[in-house]
Design a protein that fits this description.
It is a single chain. The chain contains 22 helices and no strands. It is an all-alpha fold and 488 residues long. Helix 5 packs antiparallel against helix 13, helix 14 crosses helix 16 and helix 19 runs antiparallel to helix 20. The protein is globular, with a radius of gyration of 22 Å. The N and C termini lie far apart (57 Å).
Length: 488
């Protein structure tokens, strides 16, 4: 079954509504702070919803689908629980600090905390690795469109990429926030309708698990062990509290520290509960459809089977909500990348006298360039080992060296700029040794838990203990103390 005329009409209408929201957002953009940080005036509940929905790009419906289909309930243990723990922790440690820093980009404060060199290193390296993440999200969206429409995967990636790229250009962060809220409503409605229909078809929650293969209801599985979850928890703590720059924006776009705390807690609760609604259709897929050759298609095939029976255009609404989620997630990340390039690189090192109008123009141009690179990354993803492996084994593994000095630089006073740079370098070197060098010695590939765990341990240790070895200069110590007084 493919999309029908009513579905295409719904998609067109939905796209028009999103464009209207983008136009409304454009009216709020008068300067660089509006464009990149929402003018520091985003309501906390909207920031929370936006933070939450940023975890539900098409990747959650495609990349997670293969693991949920094969391993069962353990995907919830892997995804929902670590994010909940990370955000509860972040509500106390990082969310209010992002507001107090009063920044426009996530790494802007690194110059005050360490020095200009550190700010530049993290700007360039962070931009460089981000396209792995962006490419996987765009690839996942294209898979869904490809499955339900039959359009070629490569052409779908290019088309979706261009729509996403141009959407964010004019409305900035406000466009993302408004779109997130709209698709939050639509996606919840369509998801819970699908959950109701699926549970009716399989005879309820209990009967579903009794009918599935043994072990599917367990908290852990062969693919997702307790050690794997523990290591990934630390990756998630770093990512969702600001290591992923677009998520840091959700906090420093809020005006009050206490509101940032509330936003983090609300997002945590949503992350704990809502994934169940995503995974139920995937868990039940083999019961309502049968064995599926490509597990990445499980959620889409179930949605296609049930939603198309509800009313004309329902499947189109489902596709629209996922497209909007992914478009918003990628556009937010592109906005944060453009912010870092514009303020941390262009304004700081190339043209310090640029006007606000000039800087917004540079932000738009860099958005186009980063959007094109995202399309290339997504096309490369097709040739790799699937969306889940690409996301988890690459981006998550190299996130640590970028994030540890960024986030723990707000917590620990003693580490110097040397600790930040050494930590960054040591993390990358450890990743290369443990993933590629050790297998040559032992004769077999190492696991994600091993090379990521070692990388995080080494990177954090170097950062923390460097502060006990090297001393800050009097000027550095004064500057750091003033910063910590500001964010305490």
């Amino acid at each position: 079954m493919r999309l029908e005329t009513a579905d295409y009409l719904v998609i067109i209408v939905y796209t028009i509504l999103m464009a209207i929201l983008g136009f409304v957002a454009k009216r709020k953009v008068k300067n660089m702070q509006d464009y990149f940080a929402g003018g520091k005036a985003v309501p906390w509940w909207m920031a929370a919803i936006s933070h939450h929905m940023s975890g539900y790009s098409a990747f959650a419906f495609v990349g997670h689908a293969s693991v949920a289909y094969m391993s069962g309930f353990s995907i919830w243990t892997f995804f929902a629980v670590p994010i909940f723990v990370a955000m509860i922790l972040g509500s106390q440690l990082w969310a209010p600090k992002w507001v107090k820093l009063n920044v426009i980009t996530p790494i802007e404060y690194l110059e005050t905390r360490f020095n200009l060199k550190t700010r530049q290193v993290f700007a360039w390296s962070g931009i460089s690795i981000k396209f792995i993440d962006e490419g996987v999200k765009l690839y996942s969206l294209a898979v869904i469109v490809h499955v339900v429409s039959g359009f070629p995967l490569e052409a779908t990636i290019i088309a979706c990429g261009f729509v996403t790229m141009f959407y964010i250009m004019f409305g900035g962060l406000w466009a993302t926030m408004l779109t997130d809220f709209a698709q939050f409503i639509v996606q919840f409605v369509t998801s819970f309708i699908l959950v109701y229909l699926v549970l009716q078809a399989v005879g309820g929650w209990t009967n579903m698990w009794e009918s599935l293969p043994p072990g599917h209801s367990s908290l852990f599985s062969d693919a997702i062990s307790p050690w794997f979850v523990l290591v990934y928890l630390f990756v998630i703590i770093l990512s969702y509290n600001g290591g992923t720059w677009g998520l840091a924006q959700r906090f420093y776009s809020i005006g009050k520290p206490r509101d940032a705390k509330k936003a983090a807690i609300l997002s945590a609760c949503l992350y704990l509960i809502y994934p169940i609604a995503i995974y139920i259709p995937i868990w039940s897929a083999r019961l309502v459809i049968g064995e599926i050759e490509n597990p990445e298609h499980a959620y889409v095939l179930v949605a296609e089977k049930f939603l198309s029976q509800v009313s004309p255009g329902m499947l189109g609404l489902f596709i629209s909500s996922i497209f909007a989620a992914t478009m918003s997630m990628i556009s937010s990340d592109l906005n944060s990348l453009a912010a870092v390039f514009t303020k941390d690189i262009y304004q700081r090192s190339i043209n310090g006298n640029a006007s606000e109008k000039k800087l917004i123009g540079i932000g738009m141009i860099s958005t186009i360039v980063f959007g094109l690179l995202t399309i290339v990354s997504a096309l490369i993803t097709i040739q790799m080992q699937g969306a889940f492996n690409t996301m988890v084994e690459w981006y998550a593994a190299i996130l640590g060296p970028i994030s540890i000095p960024l986030l723990f630089g707000m917590i620990f006073r003693k580490p110097t700029w040397r600790g930040a740079i050494y930590s960054w370098a040591a993390g990358f070197i450890t990743f290369i040794i443990c993933k590629y060098g050790v297998p040559l010695i032992i004769g077999q590939a190492t696991t994600f838990a091993f090379y990521t765990g070692m990388e995080l341990l080494v990177s954090f240790s170097v950062f923390y203990f460097e502060g006990m070895i090297n001393k800050q200069t009097p000027e550095e110590e004064t500057r750091v103390n003033e910063l910590f007084q500001k964010i305490k």
